[in-house]
Structure formats: structure tokens, C-alpha cells
Amino acid sequence: MRSAPLNDDFANQRCKSVVSLILGLVVSVLGMAGSVSVGFSQESVTGAGQDSARRLEAFEKQIRPFLVNECYECHGAEVQEAGLRVDFRQALLDGGDSGPAIMPGEPDKSLLYLSITHEHPDLRMPEGRPQLPASVLANFRQWIADGAVDPRDEPGEPESVAGHWDQVFEARLAANPMLHPVEFRSPPAPLDRTWSQRPADAFVLDQLEQRGLPAAAPANDSQWLRRVHLATTGLPPSPDEVRRWLADPSDRHRTQIVERLLASPAFGERWARHWMDLVRYAESYGHEQDFEVPFAWRYRDYLIRAFNADVAYDQFVSEHLAGDLLPSPRRNDVEGFNESVLATGFWYMHQATHAPVDPVQDEADRIDNQIDV
Description:
Structural class: mainly alpha
Largest sheet: none
Number of domains: 3
Helix content: 40-55%
Strand content: under 5%
Number of strands: 0
């Protein structure tokens, strides 16, 4: 599927207003202090105030959202795994069972930084999650190196997290590389200049060399045919297809094979299956009575057609969320029926517990699983 560009202009107006107010107060106070002080010039005091305000703004916009989003659940007011809290400054300085979480001015000696960069042999945070993006790690390093400015003097209450939702949302966007705008970068220059045949190969080889791993040997003709068949349709080539390919392993023939496989209905069947796994597709609800999901196959066939039609990802997601409300729904090219509305079958793909003890919790669990998708 094609991925349409995403708009990343999620400005946190509330955060900006608060930070601007604090910045103004700090600069004003320091400015007044400079006007009555004998030992400091107005320029030096104002400069110090601006630097302090810059560090405070960096904490509010770059550090606090990630602490709330990635750390509060296990190290907040309600739960303190390994004896660690991160919801106020003194708790970070005191640390937990392993020692102080931060050492202001020394990121390379701070357990918090070593754990999120996965440099610590025993601590890798967030637990069970991929490493945070390099830009986030750089922000934490700079924050600690600048003295770990943190205005949170008192322990935070659990409900106070809700007030930072805009910051949390922005942090989640930044932490998920799949939601970042596409960046066009020049290919790196790996040491081995002979292995790469295309620009994309240089990125792969560069990472392999950084990790001291050898590059894989090129696939022979038989291996290539089997791999491309399995990757696109999930089915191996037939003996006749193997014979025809080995009789003419030219680039022209290679291109024809790839185009034929991409145009095959089996391509959509193969790749729609991955999406069906993600949304927990099934034709019955399981549990005690194993109730049938009526017309589940219509959603399955919709997915196959969407993948074969190369529907843009933003259109695909919009159809899932509100395919019955789109002002201009997508129509089937052959029969003319409404394709978009069939995507709402997604909302029926969930486990159903027969007579749950806690119906409200059961509903919350189902919705939570759908949000995860």
C-alpha cells in the first residue's frame, strides 16, 4: 500500500502559553534583580535568565511528555517498580533500588540515560519496547548535561497526568517512527563499495558494517525465484515456472515475473492476511458459545481487494474508522457497490466473553484492543 504524507503540525498551544508565561516571569524577575545588583551587569543577568528559561522550556516540551508517556505507568505516584519514581525531581535524584536515576551534568553516569539508550547491561527501557528515537535520546542527554532542570518540586498526583495529554500525544507521535514525515536522505558510503547495487542497499550494508556483520551473498537464480514468489504470494513457484525462469534469467524476464506476481490475486490474499492478524480477524467470537460473526467474510474480501487495488493508506484507515460516514465513498470498479462501508467490519473483530462478570470492564478491554490497532 502507498503511504500518504502525514501532517505533523501538532502545536501544543497550552504548553507554549505556560512556557511563555514562565519565561516572561523568569526574565522579568532576573531583569529586576540585575537592575538593583551591583556585581552583575544587566546584559549578563538577562542572558542567564534567558538560558534558564530555555532549559525550562526544553524540559516542558521535550522531557516531561516522555516521562509521562513512557515512565509514569510503572514509576509514578501509584506504582514504583524497583523503588523508582520519576514524577518529581527529588525522586529522580534519589533513584530506586539501583541508585540515583540522574546525575545532573553527567549523562554518561545517569542510570536513566544509560537505560533508555540500552547502554546499561541490565536495564533497557522502556521495558519490552524498541529503543526511543535518536532525537529523543539526544534531548535527554542534553537535558542532563545542562543540569537536569526540573520544576516539579512536589510528588505528582495520578490525575495530574491528564493535564499533559497534549504533550503526551505529541510525545507519542515523536516516539513512533511510522508517524514521522518521510525524510529523503543521501545514501551512506559503506566501506565495501562493490556489494550495493541500489541506493537502498547502501543503508543496509552501512548498518551491517557498524555491527561487524557480513553481508549476505547474492541469491542464485533458483533462490531468487523462490524468494520473490514466497514474499509476494506466499506460494512457491511451480516446476514449469522454475524451468521457464532458468531458461531465461534475464533482467527483462525478472521484471515480468515481479509485475505478474504483484498483479496476482494471491498478492492481496497473502498481504491482507497480515492485516487480519493485526485486527484479530475471525469468523466467530470464541469463548464458551463461540458465536458467529455475521458476514465476516465480507470484511475479509474487502481487505483482499484493497491490497490488490493499492488503496492509499490514509484512505484505508479512514474507511476503517468511519467508512459509513465518508461523503465520497470508494466504489467497486466492477460492480459499483460501496467498498468504504465494508471496512467498518473492523469494529466487529474482537473477543466476546459470554456473560462477562464485569460488562463495563469487558467493553473497555475490547475498545482498548481496537485502539491498539
